Amino acid sequence: MSQFRAYKNHNPENQHIPYLLDVQNDLLEGLDTRMVIPLIRESSFKGSGITTLTPRINLHGETLLLLTPQMASISKHLLADEAANLVDFRYEILAAINLLIEGF
Predict the structure, then answer these.
(1) Is the pTM of the predicted complex or chain greater than 0.85?
(2) From CA 54, how far away is CA 64, in angstroms rounded?
(3) Going from the N-terminus, what domains does the chain have, and what CATH number goes with each?
(4) pLDDT (tens digit, 0 to 9) for every residue of the chain, 104 residues total?
(5) What does each C-alpha distance from 69 to 14, 16, 38, 53, 80 come to in angstroms?
(6) How far apart are CA 104 and CA 102, in angstroms?
(7) Residue 75: strand pairing partners
(8) CA 66, CA 80: separation in Å to the nearest integer?
(9) CA distance 23 to 4
(10) What does DSSP say about strands 72-75 and 82-85: parallel, antiparallel, or unpaired?
(11) Phi and psi for 16 in degrees, rounded to 5?
(12) Phi, psi (5° rounding) for residue 26?
């Protein structure tokens, strides 16, 4: 497990959310859970996103939105199939989390 890694979402009920982004700090590796943000296909997103809260990320030729308001903790055994390292989007990811938590 590593912070800012995207993992394939294998939940068949959420095919419009192909990836889950691990945002938990690696200092907490010993926990059985990881904090993730769903990555939804832009074409599946209904409504208008707030650019800072739902930044766009390009992954494997597909435009995805971070669904930061749906951030949740899941069992880390569900994050088995790593798809990409998104550390290059670190500032956008942290800005989205800060807006959600602190309002700026």
Answers:
(1) yes
(2) 9
(3) 5-102 (2.30.30.110)
(4) 699 999 999 998 888 999 999 999 999 989 999 999 999 998 888 767 678 999 999 999 999 999 999 999 999 999 999 999 999 999 999 999 999 999 98
(5) 16, 16, 9, 8, 23
(6) 6
(7) 33
(8) 20
(9) 5
(10) unpaired
(11) -75, -10
(12) -70, -15
Strands 62-66 and 72-75 come out as unpaired
Task: Find where tokens 């691990």 sit.
Answer: 22
Exposure of 59 in the CB half-sphere (CA atoms within 13 A): 28
Residues 6 or more apart whose CB falls under 8 angstroms from that of 52 comprise: 95, 96, 99
**Residues 20 and 2: beta-carbon distance below 8 Å:** no
Contact in structure between 11 and 39 (CB atoms under 8 Å): no
Classify strands 72-75 and 33-41 as parallel, antiparallel or unpaired: antiparallel
Length, in residues, of the chain: 104
The amino acid that residue 52 corresponds to is: T
Number of C-beta neighbours around residue 90 at 10 A: 12
Question: Comparing C-alpha atoms, which of 54, 57, 53 is closest to residue 87?
Answer: 57
Cα torsion at 31, 12, 89, 81 (round to 10°)? 60
